[in-house]
Design brief:
Gyrase A, domain 2; six-stranded mixed sheet; 19 strands; 2 domains; alpha+beta; 8 helices; Elongation Factor Tu (Ef-tu), domain 3; six-stranded antiparallel β-barrel
Length: 369
Amino acid sequence: MVAAPSPLLGLPGAVPGPPESPDAAVAWHYGDPFGEQRAAAQRVALVDRSHRFVARITGAERLSWLHTISSQHIAELSDGRSAENLDLDLNGRVQHHFVLTELDGTVWIDTEGDRGPALLDFLQKMVFWADAKPEAAADHAVLSLLGPRVSDLTETLGIAALPQVYGAVALPGGGFLRRMPWPTEDSYDLVVPRERLSELWTALTAAGAEPAGLWAFEALRVAALRPRIGVDTDDRTIPHEAHWIGGPDEFGAVHLNKGCYRGQETVARVHNLGKPPRHLVLLHLDGSADARPTAGDAVTAGGRAVGRLGTVIDHFELGPIALALVKRAIPADTRLEAGPMAAAIDPDSIPSDDEPQAGRLAVDKLRGR
């Protein structure tokens, strides 16, 4: 499904995302990509993410029902709280990643625009007898505010104070503001009526928010080691590989102590007995190459494929960087190639998984080891 061009693409200086990319419908930048990243990291920037798919779920059993068919513990999510969540297949492979917010008797969901219809179709097929009604909310759209000076905009937003991480507050005129733990420490999503996009954009930029394209958002997301479903993942990705393990308090999308759901067996087995075959790492790329790799290209070591490349982006401080799923056994100092470019793993991005799992320790104890 190709999203319709955003009405904000008509703003002065707006350059659309690369053709045929998932982001062609919104602004990629406004003429100063690195300056826009600095604004998002150091001041306050406003990003059009209105190509995301938005849905709503109503009904008295909306939370308890969604809890049983997804990976996150949300059965008792309180009003004004949010969480990240996954839909897994029977083998524990990630099918969908989405953000949800419970507010005023409705669960709001947003996810990748091209994957949203399939997620909604799955949810609708899983309702059965539950009092839950999932439906598309095409009349709502997402904007993002990034930067330490978002607090300067509370009066313009019509709210008394900013929420804590994963908290949400209703906005006058409809919609809500939600705080996220990424791509920066000061990140907020506005899920608002689509008809208000231009009005809010004008008001927020007049109050000091600087227009920033999705390039800025993506660069900061990659630096924060946050994967994007379908770009940084493939059809074999399990949650452990992409840093999605953890409840809302741990900024994860998979709670390890909840009832049964599709794919839970794989999640529990890997957590308790095994290790994920790959892990998501940050790559630093050699910018002197004439050509650039793209998402899906192989990451190789000595001519042998050892991983899969995800998002490739230019960061205002780090230069050319990328996310990649690489084999867990590959040391951080391995000389790699990503397409035509030399690449090196950022050692700080390699997760520490040397501790023995509880399940393995229990098995060894039973065997007298």
